[in-house]
Design a protein that fits this description.
Blueprint (H helix, E strand, L loop, with lengths): L4 E2 L2 E2 L14 E3 L20 H4 L4 E7 L5 E8 L2 E8 L6 E2 L11 E6 L5 E6 L22 E6 L6 E5 L11 E2 L5 E6 L2 E6 L10 E2 L6 E7 L5 E7 L4 E9 L2 E8 L5 E7 L5 E7 L16 E7 L5 E6 L16 E3 L4 E6 L6 E6 L6 E2 L7 E6 L5 E6 L8 E6 L7 E2 L6 E7 L6 E6 L6 E6 L2 E4 L18 E6 L5 E7 L8 E7 L15 H15 L3 E6 L8 H4 L12 H12 L4 E11 L1 H12 L6 E5 L9 H4 L9 H10 L13 E6 L8 H13 L3 E6 L9 H19 L3
């Protein structure tokens, strides 16, 4: 996803991973109300620890040779790497990290022979060049790259990473199995996979002005292609290497534009990349910009490049902000890319010499992920085709000519499709409404569970409710999807809740989510339903998978917050239900969902009786000049600041009456902690009842599992207190 940067804070990163910690500072400030807790709405049938106790899988990957796969399981705060070999796929744990340490594993890779795993451990650095330290350890943690043999032995440190943005970890291993490369300190670093050969630890590979990223090895392991960022433009480069040493740098068709997503052809003869316009000064920022783009192919030997496809100039022609790694270079010189020119995020295929692009995925749905089959002739993709509020895996020829084939299509959810290198298996991650994410093999149009013993015996699957798919209309006529959690056996009107996701380019599903933060949020909604709350999770405009026009809705975000109409429509829907007392409706959410929670309380305390705001934005105008590129020279900057402020919760602080619980870590790298600090002062001045939980040195997506538990228990207690019958 292309993220907008806010002095180190990324709008595309207004999302999370949450956990729980008793290591925190907690201030309880309740003004004008009793601090005594009322009895539960109804007795819960399970605990937060039980429903969040299952392992969560991420980073499913396959070795470049053979049938071996690997993934990361995060359970109760401990993250470890597991592997399995086809065709039986019996899971085996490789790493043995213990405890809720707040040190995540990222960029998991298997070496080509499958004998070693390589991964980063620790978090990205903040503006003070520090990795997160949520446990308050005396020794400052670092983000480091490690290698470990899968058949035994201790992990070996390759070097420090310390990348500067969430999700920037990108480890690449050469095809000859000799070298590991990653980005650190704006340059590329290299280390040998052989502990007996120098360098045993990493050394700096490049020394290029500005920053180097998106590096990819050539098929023969003798070169790399990368992107050099120069602030207002970026360049594609080929790096010649010999025995781990950089020999030469070759720029490909340099221009004033921005090059992104370089990819090698399978034979190493060509490179494909995308190109968008460079920065533009003194551009009005209130009108939503159009981002035309083009697809280029370069000769890897002559460095000459040609544009083989160009987008139009209408809004739908803009470069999609999410897609299948942006580019896939398939067999037979077919290049697969995503475009929203028909209003949906679809895959297209074009020959490297140019010509007419072929639509691979026609229909009223969106593609979210894509990867290539082992022979690189087919594309494996996840989409919401035929099931708008779930995900399933499909397969389509990279050359086109046939409709996509569903590999699994049931009341389940699948994501992260991966083909094993031997071409015999397709694996994925998957969930249901009552079981969280696990690892599966897809075969015979069904899925077979690989991680059979992973779900704890006390996981409360049987006690969970099946969320109902609901569709309701906003005041301006836009149709909004949601998931309704109705408590079991509910016969009398009780409290209701609106949940709003973060992002905002996200979609909540009819089951456990594929992102850890939102899987946890789904679990919390189930927990709240077990307490007697009727919960409506609202997929408001700006979310994904309902088409570009829905995601890029006009007058939204800081340009008018039109998406708040969808929150109000959700509240109106709840008020119409026989299981909901119209006077006992609250709301909760995190990040962008925290913003909408605060906006609801500020504008409509007459509707929302209480709320819980996790790390939300409260004043868009505070960082607008740094967020919108070129805003400092924009002719409409002052008008934009006024619009941004009027679209923020702080603009309606005088109307805010309902109590709120605020939760945030003070090392938040996405939403500045100052947003919460400032709001607290305003709430005090207005004598608004509030409570606050602050986690020192915790980040936006909480790293500690115990911080999740603590926060979710506090959320339930706060809402029970304020939404009980008076």
């Amino acid at each position: 996803m292309i993220a907008r940067e806010i002095k180190g804070f990324s709008m595309g990163r207004l999302m999370m991973r949450c956990n729980r910690a008793f290591h925190c500072c907690v201030w309880m400030v309740v003004l004008g109300g009793s601090a005594a807790m009322t009895p539960p709405v109804q007795a819960q049938s399970f605990t937060i620890e039980e429903i969040l106790g299952a392992p969560f899988p991420t980073q499913l990957t396959a070795a470049p040779q053979g049938s071996r796969i690997a993934w990361v399981f995060a359970q109760r705060g401990a993250q470890n790497v597991w592997i399995a070999d086809g065709p039986e796929f019996v899971p085996k744990q490789v790493t043995h990290y213990k405890g809720d340490t707040g040190q995540p594993i990222a960029s998991l890779r298997l070496t080509p022979d499958g004998k070693n795993i390589v991964f980063a451990r620790g978090t990205e650095i903040n503006g003070e060049a520090r990795s997160a330290n949520p446990l308050g350890d005396a020794k400052q943690p670092k983000q480091e790259v490690w290698i470990e043999a899968v058949d035994g032995g201790e992990p070996r440190l390759l070097g420090e990473m310390g990348c500067e943005a969430e999700g920037c970890e990108d480890i690449q291993i050469s095809s000859d199995d000799k070298w590991v490369v990653w980005e650190a300190k704006h340059e590329l670093w290299i280390a040998s996979t052989d502990s007996t050969k120098a360098p045993a630890t990493a050394k700096q590979l490049t020394d290029i002005r500005s920053s180097v990223d998106s590096a990819r090895w050539s098929p023969d392991g003798a070169h790399m292609v990368a992107t050099v960022g120069r602030h207002d433009h970026s360049l594609t480069v080929i790096l010649d290497l010999s025995d781990g040493v950089l020999q030469a740098v070759h720029y490909i068709a340099p221009s004033t534009d921005r090059d992104i997503s370089p990819q090698w052809s399978p034979d190493g003869a060509h490179i494909a990349f995308l190109r968008v316009g460079g920065a533009e000064e003194k551009r009005p920022i209130i009108p939503q910009p159009v981002t035309p783009w083009s697809l280029w192919v370069a000769d890897a030997h002559t460095y000459a490049a040609t544009a083989i496809w160009k987008s139009g100039t209408a809004p739908r022609d803009s470069l999609p902000p999410f897609g299948p790694g942006q580019l896939l270079y398939a067999a037979d010189e077919k290049i697969v890319f995503s475009s929203e020119k028909d209003g949906r995020n679809h895959l297209y295929s074009i020959h490297s010499s140019g010509g007419q692009a072929t639509l691979l995925t026609p229909g009223a749905y969106d593609v979210e992920e894509a990867s290539l089959s082992a022979d690189k002739r087919s594309v494996l993709l996840s989409s919401n085709a035929e099931d708008v509020d779930r995900r399933h895996i499909w397969k389509v020829s990279a050359a086109g000519g046939a409709a996509p084939e569903a590999l699994a299509l049931d009341e389940t959810i699948e994501w992260s499709p991966v083909a094993t290198a031997d071409g015999k298996s397709v694996v994925c991650l998957g969930s249901t409404a009552r079981t969280p994410g696990l690892v599966y093999r897809l075969a015979n149009h069904a899925r077979e569970l690989i991680t059979k013993d992973a779900l704890p015996k006390d996981f409360p699957s049987a006690q969970l409710v099946e969320p109902k798919q609901v569709v309701f209309k906003a005041e301006d006529g836009l149709m909004i999807h949601g998931q309704l959690f109705v408590p079991k056996g509910q016969s009398k009107p009780g409290p209701g809740l609106i949940f709003t996701h973060g992002g905002p380019p996200r979609q909540m599903l009819l089951g456990f989510h594929y992102m850890d933060y939102y899987s946890n949020a789904y679990a919390e909604n189930q927990y709240l339903a077990s307490l007697g709350f009727t919960v409506l999770s609202v997929n408001y405009r700006l979310g994904i998978m309902y088409g570009r026009d829905f995601r890029e809705a006009p007058n939204s975000c800081w340009r008018g917050a039109a998406e708040y109409n969808d929150v109000l429509a959700g509240a109106k829907y709840l008020q119409s239900l026989p299981t909901v007392d119209p006077k006992r409706i609250g709301l909760w959410g995190g990040s962008y969902g925290g913003f909408l929670t605060a906006l609801g309380l500020a504008r409509n305390s007459d509707i929302f009786a209480a709320g819980v705001d996790y790390h939300g934005v409260h004043d868009w105008s505070d960082f607008l000049p740094s967020w919108e590129e070129g805003a400092g020279s924009a002719p409409d900057l002052q008008e934009a600041k006024k619009l941004a402020f009027s679209s923020s919760p702080n603009a309606s602080i005088a109307k805010w009456k309902s109590p709120v619980l605020l939760i945030q870590g003070d090392d938040d790298r996405n939403v500045p902690f100052s947003q919460m600090v400032s709001l607290v002062q305003k709430l005090r001045a207005q004598q608004v009842p509030f409570e606050q939980i602050v986690y020192p040195d915790e980040i936006h997506d909480f790293l500690l599992w115990k911080d999740f538990i603590r926060s979710y228990e506090a959320t339930a207690d706060f809402l029970k207190l304020h939404l009980e019958a008076k």
